Amino acid sequence: MAVTPATRAWEELFATRARGGVGDAIADILALLAVPGLISFAGGFPDPETFPRERAAQLLAEFAESGESSAFQYAPTRGLAGPLDALAGRIEATQGRRPADDELLITSGAIEALELVAKTFLDAGDRVVVEGPTYLGALMAFRGFSAKVDVVPVDDDGLQVEELARRLDAGLRPKLLYTIPDHQNPGGVSLSAERREALVELARRYGFLVFEDVAYRELAFGDESLPSLWSLGPDVVVQAGTTSKTFFPGVRLGWAAGPAPISAQLVSAKQNTDQCAAALGQRLFEEYLRRGWLDEQLTASRALYRRKCERMLAALDRSMPAGAAWTTPTGGFFSWLSLPEGADARLLAKRAVEVGVGIVPGTVFYPDGRGDDHVRLSFSLVDEAAIDTGISKLAELL
Length: 398
Ligand SMILES: Cc1ncc(COP(=O)(O)O)c(C=O)c1O
Prior knowledge:
The protein is of the alpha/beta class. The protein has helices spanning about 25-30, 55-65, 80-95, 110-120, 135-145, 160-170, 195-205, 230, 260-270, 280-290, 295-320, 345-355, 385-395; strands spanning about 40, 105, 125-130, 150-155, 160, 175-180, 210-215, 235-240, 255, 325, 335-340, 355-360, 360, 375-380. The strands form three sheets. It has an eight-stranded mixed beta sheet, sandwiched between helices.
Protein backbone atom coordinates (compact mmCIF):
# COMPACT_ATOMS: atom_id res chain seq x y z
CA MET A 1 0.00 0.00 0.00
CA ALA A 2 1.34 3.44 -0.90
CA VAL A 3 2.30 5.65 2.01
CA THR A 4 0.01 8.64 1.91
CA PRO A 5 0.27 11.67 4.15
CA ALA A 6 -2.71 10.38 6.12
CA THR A 7 -0.94 7.13 7.07
CA ARG A 8 2.64 8.38 7.34
CA ALA A 9 4.16 7.87 10.77
CA TRP A 10 5.96 11.21 10.91
CA GLU A 11 7.77 10.22 14.11
CA GLU A 12 9.96 7.91 12.04
CA LEU A 13 11.41 10.99 10.35
CA PHE A 14 12.09 12.86 13.60
CA ALA A 15 15.77 13.46 14.44
CA THR A 16 17.27 11.22 17.12
CA ARG A 17 17.60 14.17 19.52
CA ALA A 18 13.84 14.81 19.28
CA ARG A 19 13.18 11.31 20.58
CA GLY A 20 15.28 11.81 23.69
CA GLY A 21 12.37 11.45 26.10
CA VAL A 22 12.24 15.16 26.80
CA GLY A 23 8.52 14.83 27.55
CA ASP A 24 5.78 17.42 27.61
CA ALA A 25 5.82 18.37 31.28
CA ILE A 26 6.16 22.14 30.70
CA ALA A 27 3.31 22.13 28.18
CA ASP A 28 1.23 20.08 30.61
CA ILE A 29 1.80 22.61 33.40
CA LEU A 30 0.95 25.52 31.10
CA ALA A 31 -2.24 23.72 30.06
CA LEU A 32 -3.41 23.63 33.70
CA LEU A 33 -3.73 27.44 33.46
CA ALA A 34 -6.77 26.90 31.26
CA VAL A 35 -8.63 24.57 33.66
CA PRO A 36 -11.52 26.67 35.02
CA GLY A 37 -11.74 27.02 38.78
CA LEU A 38 -8.59 25.01 39.48
CA ILE A 39 -6.82 25.92 42.73
CA SER A 40 -3.38 25.75 41.22
CA PHE A 41 -0.17 25.17 43.14
CA ALA A 42 1.26 23.93 39.84
CA GLY A 43 2.94 26.55 37.63
CA GLY A 44 5.72 28.90 38.67
CA PHE A 45 3.72 31.82 37.32
CA PRO A 46 3.78 35.36 38.71
CA ASP A 47 0.57 36.73 40.20
CA PRO A 48 -1.24 38.93 37.63
CA GLU A 49 -1.73 41.46 40.45
CA THR A 50 1.95 42.35 39.90
CA PHE A 51 1.56 43.10 36.19
CA PRO A 52 2.32 46.75 35.37
CA ARG A 53 -0.68 47.32 33.14
CA GLU A 54 -1.00 51.11 33.29
CA ARG A 55 2.71 51.75 33.14
CA ALA A 56 3.15 49.40 30.19
CA ALA A 57 0.30 51.23 28.42
CA GLN A 58 1.87 54.61 29.21
CA LEU A 59 5.23 53.52 27.83
CA LEU A 60 3.69 52.11 24.66
CA ALA A 61 1.86 55.39 24.09
CA GLU A 62 5.13 57.28 24.61
CA PHE A 63 6.97 55.09 22.09
CA ALA A 64 4.21 55.64 19.56
CA GLU A 65 4.05 59.40 20.08
CA SER A 66 7.78 60.06 20.19
CA GLY A 67 8.30 58.54 16.75
CA GLU A 68 11.01 56.22 18.08
CA SER A 69 11.48 53.25 15.82
CA SER A 70 13.85 51.03 17.82
CA ALA A 71 11.05 49.53 19.93
CA PHE A 72 9.28 48.38 16.78
CA GLN A 73 12.31 47.36 14.70
CA TYR A 74 14.60 44.30 14.64
CA ALA A 75 17.34 44.59 17.26
CA PRO A 76 21.03 43.64 17.26
CA THR A 77 21.45 39.98 18.22
CA ARG A 78 23.23 40.86 21.49
CA GLY A 79 20.49 43.34 22.37
CA LEU A 80 19.76 47.07 21.99
CA ALA A 81 22.44 49.36 23.45
CA GLY A 82 20.10 51.20 25.85
CA PRO A 83 18.49 48.10 27.38
CA LEU A 84 21.92 46.41 27.65
CA ASP A 85 23.28 49.44 29.51
CA ALA A 86 20.27 49.58 31.85
CA LEU A 87 20.48 45.83 32.53
CA ALA A 88 24.24 45.99 33.18
CA GLY A 89 23.55 48.81 35.65
CA ARG A 90 20.90 46.72 37.38
CA ILE A 91 23.24 43.75 37.66
CA GLU A 92 25.93 46.02 39.10
CA ALA A 93 23.50 47.49 41.65
CA THR A 94 22.21 44.09 42.79
CA GLN A 95 25.34 41.92 42.42
CA GLY A 96 28.23 44.35 42.90
CA ARG A 97 29.86 43.70 39.53
CA ARG A 98 29.02 45.21 36.16
CA PRO A 99 29.29 42.92 33.16
CA ALA A 100 31.46 44.42 30.40
CA ASP A 101 29.83 45.07 27.02
CA ASP A 102 31.21 41.81 25.64
CA GLU A 103 30.04 39.79 28.67
CA LEU A 104 26.28 40.38 28.46
CA LEU A 105 23.50 39.53 26.01
CA ILE A 106 19.74 39.86 26.15
CA THR A 107 17.80 36.65 25.49
CA SER A 108 14.20 35.67 24.90
CA GLY A 109 13.66 34.54 28.48
CA ALA A 110 16.06 32.53 30.60
CA ILE A 111 14.85 29.46 28.79
CA GLU A 112 16.59 30.68 25.65
CA ALA A 113 19.80 31.22 27.63
CA LEU A 114 19.53 27.56 28.69
CA GLU A 115 19.07 26.47 25.10
CA LEU A 116 21.99 28.60 23.87
CA VAL A 117 24.37 27.32 26.53
CA ALA A 118 23.34 23.72 25.85
CA LYS A 119 23.70 24.23 22.11
CA THR A 120 27.12 25.84 22.57
CA PHE A 121 28.66 23.29 24.92
CA LEU A 122 27.01 19.92 24.57
CA ASP A 123 27.78 17.08 22.20
CA ALA A 124 25.91 13.81 22.59
CA GLY A 125 27.15 11.98 25.68
CA ASP A 126 28.75 15.01 27.33
CA ARG A 127 28.21 15.18 31.07
CA VAL A 128 26.22 17.84 32.87
CA VAL A 129 25.72 17.92 36.63
CA VAL A 130 22.43 19.25 37.94
CA GLU A 131 21.18 19.54 41.47
CA GLY A 132 18.38 17.17 42.35
CA PRO A 133 15.63 18.24 42.22
CA THR A 134 16.06 20.91 39.55
CA TYR A 135 14.20 23.10 37.05
CA LEU A 136 12.66 20.92 34.41
CA GLY A 137 13.30 23.41 31.59
CA ALA A 138 17.01 22.90 32.22
CA LEU A 139 16.67 19.13 32.12
CA MET A 140 14.87 19.49 28.81
CA ALA A 141 17.57 21.75 27.38
CA PHE A 142 20.39 19.38 28.36
CA ARG A 143 18.54 16.25 27.29
CA GLY A 144 17.61 17.93 24.02
CA PHE A 145 21.32 17.82 23.16
CA SER A 146 21.67 14.22 24.33
CA ALA A 147 23.84 15.05 27.33
CA LYS A 148 24.34 12.58 30.20
CA VAL A 149 22.86 14.23 33.25
CA ASP A 150 24.28 13.44 36.71
CA VAL A 151 22.40 14.46 39.83
CA VAL A 152 23.90 15.82 43.04
CA PRO A 153 21.29 16.26 45.77
CA VAL A 154 20.27 19.46 47.51
CA ASP A 155 19.58 19.90 51.21
CA ASP A 156 18.40 22.91 53.20
CA ASP A 157 21.62 24.75 52.21
CA GLY A 158 21.23 24.09 48.50
CA LEU A 159 23.44 21.94 46.31
CA GLN A 160 25.55 19.53 48.37
CA VAL A 161 28.89 20.89 47.22
CA GLU A 162 30.79 18.45 49.47
CA GLU A 163 29.13 15.57 47.63
CA LEU A 164 30.00 17.16 44.30
CA ALA A 165 33.63 17.46 45.44
CA ARG A 166 33.63 13.79 46.37
CA ARG A 167 32.27 12.80 42.95
CA LEU A 168 34.80 15.00 41.14
CA ASP A 169 37.55 13.50 43.23
CA ALA A 170 36.31 10.06 42.17
CA GLY A 171 36.68 10.98 38.49
CA LEU A 172 33.43 12.69 37.41
CA ARG A 173 34.31 15.23 34.68
CA PRO A 174 31.32 17.37 33.68
CA LYS A 175 31.45 20.16 31.13
CA LEU A 176 28.71 22.09 32.93
CA LEU A 177 27.20 22.29 36.37
CA TYR A 178 23.73 23.87 36.45
CA THR A 179 22.48 25.38 39.71
CA ILE A 180 19.76 27.73 40.98
CA PRO A 181 21.40 29.18 44.09
CA ASP A 182 18.58 31.48 45.23
CA HIS A 183 15.15 30.18 46.31
CA GLN A 184 15.56 27.17 44.12
CA ASN A 185 12.93 25.79 41.76
CA PRO A 186 11.47 23.43 42.92
CA GLY A 187 13.14 23.07 46.34
CA GLY A 188 12.62 26.58 47.72
CA VAL A 189 16.10 26.41 49.32
CA SER A 190 19.18 28.61 48.82
CA LEU A 191 22.88 27.83 48.54
CA SER A 192 24.87 28.86 51.61
CA ALA A 193 27.66 31.45 51.40
CA GLU A 194 30.39 28.88 52.15
CA ARG A 195 29.15 26.52 49.49
CA ARG A 196 29.10 29.33 46.91
CA GLU A 197 32.79 29.99 47.48
CA ALA A 198 33.58 26.28 47.45
CA LEU A 199 31.67 25.66 44.21
CA VAL A 200 33.54 28.38 42.35
CA GLU A 201 36.84 26.96 43.60
CA LEU A 202 35.85 23.48 42.37
CA ALA A 203 35.00 24.89 38.93
CA ARG A 204 38.47 26.46 38.75
CA ARG A 205 40.18 23.32 39.98
CA TYR A 206 38.38 20.86 37.69
CA GLY A 207 37.82 23.13 34.69
CA PHE A 208 34.04 22.98 34.31
CA LEU A 209 31.62 25.84 33.72
CA VAL A 210 29.13 26.76 36.44
CA PHE A 211 25.81 27.69 34.87
CA GLU A 212 23.97 29.81 37.42
CA ASP A 213 20.24 30.50 37.08
CA VAL A 214 19.12 33.52 39.11
CA ALA A 215 15.42 33.42 38.20
CA TYR A 216 14.23 34.09 41.78
CA ARG A 217 17.22 36.03 43.14
CA GLU A 218 15.39 39.34 43.38
CA LEU A 219 12.37 37.81 45.08
CA ALA A 220 13.74 37.35 48.60
CA PHE A 221 11.16 37.99 51.31
CA GLY A 222 13.71 39.81 53.45
CA ASP A 223 16.71 42.03 52.71
CA GLU A 224 19.38 39.35 52.97
CA SER A 225 21.20 38.47 49.76
CA LEU A 226 24.26 36.31 49.20
CA PRO A 227 26.82 36.97 46.47
CA SER A 228 25.88 35.59 43.06
CA LEU A 229 28.16 32.85 41.78
CA TRP A 230 28.91 34.98 38.73
CA SER A 231 30.13 37.85 40.92
CA LEU A 232 32.37 35.42 42.81
CA GLY A 233 33.75 33.72 39.69
CA PRO A 234 33.19 35.72 36.50
CA ASP A 235 35.96 33.61 34.93
CA VAL A 236 34.11 30.29 35.46
CA VAL A 237 30.41 31.18 35.66
CA VAL A 238 27.71 31.96 33.11
CA GLN A 239 24.62 33.47 34.66
CA ALA A 240 21.14 33.18 33.17
CA GLY A 241 18.52 35.63 34.38
CA THR A 242 14.92 36.42 33.59
CA THR A 243 12.52 39.34 33.89
CA SER A 244 9.56 36.93 33.90
CA LYS A 245 9.11 36.80 37.66
CA THR A 246 9.96 40.44 38.40
CA PHE A 247 8.53 42.38 35.42
CA PHE A 248 6.15 40.14 33.44
CA PRO A 249 6.60 37.01 31.34
CA GLY A 250 4.60 38.35 28.38
CA VAL A 251 7.75 40.12 27.15
CA ARG A 252 9.79 36.85 27.23
CA LEU A 253 13.01 38.59 28.25
CA GLY A 254 16.13 37.36 30.00
CA TRP A 255 19.90 37.57 29.89
CA ALA A 256 23.16 35.67 29.92
CA ALA A 257 26.28 37.11 31.56
CA GLY A 258 29.60 35.33 31.34
CA PRO A 259 33.18 35.27 30.04
CA ALA A 260 33.55 37.21 26.77
CA PRO A 261 34.48 34.24 24.54
CA ILE A 262 31.43 32.31 25.74
CA SER A 263 29.22 35.35 25.37
CA ALA A 264 30.40 35.80 21.75
CA GLN A 265 29.54 32.19 20.99
CA LEU A 266 26.08 32.54 22.58
CA VAL A 267 25.43 35.56 20.37
CA SER A 268 26.51 33.51 17.40
CA ALA A 269 24.21 30.64 18.40
CA LYS A 270 21.33 33.07 18.90
CA GLN A 271 21.35 34.13 15.26
CA ASN A 272 19.40 31.07 14.30
CA THR A 273 17.16 30.67 17.31
CA ASP A 274 15.32 33.99 17.27
CA GLN A 275 17.95 36.32 15.76
CA CYS A 276 17.21 38.92 18.44
CA ALA A 277 15.04 39.21 21.55
CA ALA A 278 11.92 41.30 20.91
CA ALA A 279 12.88 44.98 20.82
CA LEU A 280 9.54 46.10 22.22
CA GLY A 281 10.08 44.16 25.43
CA GLN A 282 13.67 45.35 25.68
CA ARG A 283 12.61 49.01 25.46
CA LEU A 284 9.73 48.54 27.91
CA PHE A 285 12.07 46.93 30.41
CA GLU A 286 14.73 49.60 29.93
CA GLU A 287 12.30 52.43 30.65
CA TYR A 288 10.77 50.55 33.53
CA LEU A 289 14.19 50.15 35.11
CA ARG A 290 15.41 53.69 34.47
CA ARG A 291 12.31 55.22 36.07
CA GLY A 292 12.74 53.18 39.24
CA TRP A 293 9.48 51.35 38.63
CA LEU A 294 10.99 47.89 38.87
CA ASP A 295 12.10 48.57 42.44
CA GLU A 296 8.61 49.76 43.31
CA GLN A 297 7.07 46.66 41.75
CA LEU A 298 9.53 44.40 43.55
CA THR A 299 8.67 45.86 46.94
CA ALA A 300 5.00 45.07 46.35
CA SER A 301 5.71 41.66 44.78
CA ARG A 302 7.94 40.50 47.62
CA ALA A 303 5.33 41.43 50.20
CA LEU A 304 2.60 39.65 48.23
CA TYR A 305 4.59 36.44 47.76
CA ARG A 306 5.72 36.45 51.35
CA ARG A 307 2.12 36.69 52.53
CA LYS A 308 1.01 33.87 50.26
CA CYS A 309 3.93 31.70 51.31
CA GLU A 310 3.22 32.24 55.01
CA ARG A 311 -0.41 31.38 54.47
CA MET A 312 0.44 28.18 52.62
CA LEU A 313 2.99 27.11 55.25
CA ALA A 314 0.44 27.76 58.01
CA ALA A 315 -2.16 25.69 56.12
CA LEU A 316 0.37 22.85 55.71
CA ASP A 317 1.13 23.01 59.43
CA ARG A 318 -2.55 22.77 60.29
CA SER A 319 -3.61 20.03 57.92
CA MET A 320 -0.83 17.75 56.70
CA PRO A 321 -0.72 14.22 58.08
CA ALA A 322 2.19 12.82 60.09
CA GLY A 323 5.17 11.92 57.95
CA ALA A 324 4.77 14.88 55.59
CA ALA A 325 7.47 17.57 55.63
CA TRP A 326 8.16 20.69 53.59
CA THR A 327 10.82 23.31 53.02
CA THR A 328 10.50 26.85 54.40
CA PRO A 329 11.39 29.24 51.59
CA THR A 330 12.94 32.65 52.26
CA GLY A 331 11.88 33.91 48.82
CA GLY A 332 10.81 32.75 45.38
CA PHE A 333 7.68 30.81 44.47
CA PHE A 334 8.05 27.24 45.80
CA SER A 335 8.02 24.83 48.68
CA TRP A 336 9.01 21.18 48.25
CA LEU A 337 6.67 18.77 49.97
CA SER A 338 7.91 15.33 51.10
CA LEU A 339 5.02 12.91 51.15
CA PRO A 340 4.36 10.45 53.96
CA GLU A 341 5.68 6.92 53.47
CA GLY A 342 3.83 5.01 50.75
CA ALA A 343 2.23 8.00 48.99
CA ASP A 344 2.75 8.25 45.23
CA ALA A 345 3.25 11.77 43.84
CA ARG A 346 1.98 11.04 40.33
CA LEU A 347 -1.17 9.40 41.59
CA LEU A 348 -1.68 12.24 44.05
CA ALA A 349 -1.34 14.83 41.24
CA LYS A 350 -3.94 12.97 39.18
CA ARG A 351 -6.40 12.68 42.04
CA ALA A 352 -5.79 16.29 43.03
CA VAL A 353 -6.90 17.60 39.61
CA GLU A 354 -10.10 15.57 39.99
CA VAL A 355 -10.91 17.48 43.17
CA GLY A 356 -9.89 20.81 41.63
CA VAL A 357 -6.30 21.21 42.87
CA GLY A 358 -3.19 21.50 40.67
CA ILE A 359 0.24 20.28 41.85
CA VAL A 360 3.35 19.00 40.08
CA PRO A 361 4.74 15.56 41.00
CA GLY A 362 8.42 15.53 41.99
CA THR A 363 9.39 13.11 39.23
CA VAL A 364 9.52 15.85 36.57
CA PHE A 365 12.34 17.56 38.46
CA TYR A 366 14.73 14.61 38.16
CA PRO A 367 16.19 13.07 35.01
CA ASP A 368 15.95 9.51 36.32
CA GLY A 369 12.50 8.81 37.74
CA ARG A 370 13.31 9.88 41.29
CA GLY A 371 11.02 12.31 43.07
CA ASP A 372 8.00 10.05 43.35
CA ASP A 373 7.81 10.84 47.05
CA HIS A 374 7.76 14.63 46.55
CA VAL A 375 5.48 17.30 45.18
CA ARG A 376 6.24 20.89 44.20
CA LEU A 377 3.88 23.44 45.68
CA SER A 378 3.91 26.88 44.12
CA PHE A 379 2.23 29.65 46.09
CA SER A 380 2.81 32.46 43.57
CA LEU A 381 -0.30 32.27 41.41
CA VAL A 382 -2.89 30.68 43.63
CA ASP A 383 -5.66 32.94 44.85
CA GLU A 384 -4.83 33.87 48.45
CA ALA A 385 -8.29 33.06 49.73
CA ALA A 386 -8.17 29.60 48.12
CA ILE A 387 -4.85 28.51 49.67
CA ASP A 388 -6.43 27.02 52.82
CA THR A 389 -9.05 25.07 50.88
CA GLY A 390 -6.50 23.79 48.35
CA ILE A 391 -4.10 22.55 51.01
CA SER A 392 -6.83 20.91 53.07
CA LYS A 393 -8.11 19.07 49.96
CA LEU A 394 -4.57 17.81 49.34
CA ALA A 395 -4.23 16.73 52.96
CA GLU A 396 -7.53 14.82 52.73
CA LEU A 397 -6.31 12.97 49.64
CA LEU A 398 -3.11 12.01 51.42
C1 LIG B 1 14.69 28.33 37.55
C2 LIG B 1 14.04 28.87 36.32
N1 LIG B 1 14.80 29.21 35.29
C3 LIG B 1 14.27 29.70 34.17
C4 LIG B 1 12.91 29.86 34.02
C5 LIG B 1 12.37 30.35 32.71
O1 LIG B 1 12.29 31.70 32.69
P1 LIG B 1 11.81 32.48 31.39
O2 LIG B 1 10.38 32.77 31.57
O3 LIG B 1 12.63 33.71 31.40
O4 LIG B 1 12.11 31.65 30.21
C6 LIG B 1 12.07 29.52 35.08
C7 LIG B 1 10.63 29.68 34.93
O5 LIG B 1 9.84 28.97 35.47
C8 LIG B 1 12.66 29.01 36.26
O6 LIG B 1 11.91 28.63 37.28
